[in-house]
Amino acid sequence: MSSFSASELTPDLAAKFARLTLGHVTKPYPYKLDQVLAGDEDVLPPRVLHPIFHGSFDWHSCVHGHWQLARLLRRFPDIAPAAGVRDLLNANFTAQKVAGEVATFSRPAARGFGRPYGWAWLLMLAAELERHDAPWAATLRPLAEAVADRLMAFLPIATYPIRTGTHFNTAFALALASEYAAQVKDEALSALITTHARAWYLADTGAQAWEPSGDDFLSATLAEAECLRRVLPAAEFRTWFARFLPETARRQPATLFTPPTVSDRTDGKIAHLDGLCLSRAWCWRSIATALDVADPASAVALAAADDHLAAGLAHVAGDYMGEHWLATFALLALEAG
Fold first, then answer.
1. How many CB atoms neighbour CB 189 within 10 A?
2. What are phi and psi of 247, to 5 degrees?
3. Which fold has domain 11-335?
4. Closest by CA position to 101, among listed 154, 135, 142, 133
5. Which of 21, 125, 220, 247 could form an SS bridge with 67, CB 3.0 to 4.6 Å?
6. C-alpha of 251 from chain center
């Protein structure tokens, strides 16, 4: 499965994604720790620090790998890898393992661990598990609530958004966290997300889209639009978007409509650019659904999504630097709209 193409999520493609992800969420090494050491006692292997999420090269990728598998299982419960997915979720979502994740997460030196990208994906995973007829969501809830509390504490002190195209992007995190807040009916978190999204982004106009940078896997420009699409009423979003990217119908800024060049897929940072293709496809598809069908920007957005999806899907598998995470963003893109 070094490359494939699709315009929609099918059972066959879902099975391919599931097999790919089952292969890396259980792969212990290589693994990149994100850890502040408070003493020698903190030097421990990943499986001890992270009893659930110790595969997929790093913690956050393992988290969204589990989200992807849970999502595919719910959408396509009869695909061949489904039994393996259920076995994995049953084995990993136990009270003892969740307590171990909470303990690592709660260390004083881990205040910023996973912020905000890993937090957002943990909440997305929790939201997805809530949709299953299984005990997994209840078991994970102590960790999900700890992360939600941490986000609630962080947002009031976050004076400025982070507008990068990598893990620190706050628009992407708010977009995903808003799904969790809606799913569990956390009105306080929903209100806080909406307040900050409005304060940070509502006044933005004429986005220049100075991207991509050399290791972007998110479009800072389109992630902002996707964030506001989720929190604003539809009419207000359309008015804002017309100010934010007023030249969309003319495919400007051109960089947003051009899939990036990926020179070396064995380099983990450069391989991020394949993810940029997929995350742009996700955003463009989602944005198009919110625009008036008569708006010329809608068709342009869908065409841009198709171009980026084709470019990204061709490289979901092949080298582990991309293989351990790209299928997650492919799933986002294929489900959008």
1. 21
2. -105, 20
3. Glycosyltransferase (1.50.10)
4. 142
5. 125
6. 26
Nearest-angstrom CA–CA distance, 131 and 182: 12
Q: If you search the block for the tokens 């599931």, which residue do you land on?
A: 18
Tell me the two tokens of residue 266.
């064995």
Specify the 3-state DSSP secondary structure of 336.
coil
DSSP readout, 77-131? Answer: TTSTTHHHHHHHHHHH--HHHHHHHHHHHTSGGGTTTTTTHHHHHHHHHHHHHTT
Structure tokens at 57: 């090269």
d(CA 62, CA 134): 20
Query: Is the preceding peptide bond at 253 cis, omega within 30 degrees of 0?
Result: yes
| One-letter identity of residue 116 | P
* Boundaries of every domain in the chain: 11-335
**Per-residue confidence in pLDDT tens, the chain, 337 aa:** 445 667 899 999 999 999 999 999 999 999 999 999 999 999 999 999 999 999 999 999 999 999 999 999 999 999 999 999 999 999 999 999 999 999 999 999 999 999 999 999 999 999 999 999 999 999 999 999 999 999 999 999 999 999 999 999 999 999 999 999 999 999 999 999 999 999 999 999 999 999 999 999 999 999 999 999 999 999 999 999 999 999 999 999 999 999 999 999 999 999 999 999 999 999 999 999 999 999 999 999 999 999 999 999 999 999 999 999 999 999 999 999 7
- Write out the two tokens for 156: 């009031």
